[in-house]
Model the fold of this input.
Amino acid sequence: MEYLMENEEEAFRLDIKTNSRVVEQQALWAGIKPGMHVADMCCGSGKVTSILHKLVQPGGVAIGFDGSEKRIEYAKERYNDKGITFRRRDIRKSLGGEEMFDFVWMRFALEYYLSSSFDIVKNVTKLIKPGGILCLVDLDHNCLSHFGISPRLERTIFAVIKYLEENADFDPYVGRKLYSFLYDLGYQDINMDVTAHHLIFGELNDIDAYNWTKKFEVISKKVNFNFEEYDGGYEEFLGEFNRFFIDPRRFTYTPVICCRGRKPVA
Done:
């Protein structure tokens, strides 16, 4: 199944929405240190790989893996500094033959693999050295928490997300599952952190406006959802959502859950 957000501008969307300071804080919390050999799984635009690379200096190496040739090309063009490598790999398939890593990072990827998220984590685990760290970062209640929204708009958003669960392998609740993944795989020293990822109130900034509009635009073209409460279909729905979203009274948030653990030595 194709990545739900696949489109010509996806690398750019991932690039501009990534907050470097937040990534640094999450990685340091997880235990990244200078000299580590790091893998960034589903690296997207390569921006996060570049951030991780800086955190493991001096002496560290960072490799970004992604299933999209276009995003790998984008990453190589913009973030191919000395010590950074980008490789095309499908995380659902065997990753044998790759070197072993001290620190493996996977952020905002598992939400697109409802039916296989645990198997993906199990697969990625094979790349981690005994005693190495795995850090999973993902959202919970994704796109679903808004205040100031009309009842029909709220019902429709929930219905769209439910449709994506059933027809596009999307998991809006994967964040709450991360702890169980590491627990079931026998990881040690597991730790959790929960903060806000989307925290939108007051005047809407350009990055949030672009990110959310692009999400709806891309998804609407890929799914055959019937906007039955809107006589004007998707266009009427989108118009109402945009009016809600640009209203400075609006409040929108999504929790981000970070889970890190250490692979057993034996």
